[in-house]
Amino acid sequence: ARQRKVLMAGNWKMNPASIKEAREMAALLASSLRTIAQDKPGFDVEVVVIPPSPFLHIVADVLSGTVAKIGAQDVHPESKGAFTGEVSTGMLMSMGVSYVLAGHSERRNLFNESDAVVNKKVKAVLASGLSPILCIGESKEEYESGLVKDVCSKQLREGLVGVSAEDLQEKLVIAYEPVWAIGTGLTATPAIAQSVHSYIRSVIKEMYSPEVANAVRIQYGGSVTPESVDELMTCPDIDGCLVGGASLVAEKFSRIFSYQ
Ligand code: PEP
Q1: What family classification does the UniProt entry report for this protein (predicted)?
Q2: Is the ipTM of this complex over 0.85?
Q3: Is the pTM of this model over 0.90?
Q4: Looking at domain 7-257, which of 3.30.1360.120, 3.30.428.10, 1.10.3720.10, 3.20.20.70 is its CATH number?
């Protein structure tokens, strides 16, 4: 049996278009989760829904009473003050959030987030008691130049500066998301994903200890679909998926988190 609890997270990104649609999407998921709870008493997958900040409250409300947890897509490292447009960890906590993405490739690439900024966010999230999902992964050019290990190792080491073994073991989740596979329909083959996940675990082992490396959960992300999830989840070092596009369709996301 798997020793790490599987974590399936759906990142809605800047979707859907209205609170009405968000409520409807969450309601479909809630009903699917209720059916699973009835039909599969042993269902033991952690499911996280990550809507845009303005919809956190309604989505948390609609999903309450189901096993789903709520995640946020981003956070500001400071706890309050003159940071127009930003959202703090305390605000997220008060809305029932459990997980916060840090360093999603869209934040890194479109909003110029450096590893240092990502690290600040990771530490702020941990300090507040929430769980960060630290996203790492190489671009297409880096992949083609054989730089996967260098890029992942740098993003990991810089993202984890000052993070304790205990926090890594108990709270922080790593998501390996090759940028060339995000939103492109190109999923890394299970063999490629498994080899990078195993490498990531070896870096954690070197930075921390074999125990921490063994305990940390590593999700795969990048065009995961109902068609690709089952095979990905047979890989021993893949502990769940971070799903973008397919998480916007309740039926698809449900099929993904109830993978076989
Ligand atoms: C993501 O944004 O984290 C992601 C993996 O997106 P998609 O599943 O659409 O590739």
Answers
A1: Belongs to the triosephosphate isomerase family.
A2: yes
A3: yes
A4: 3.20.20.70
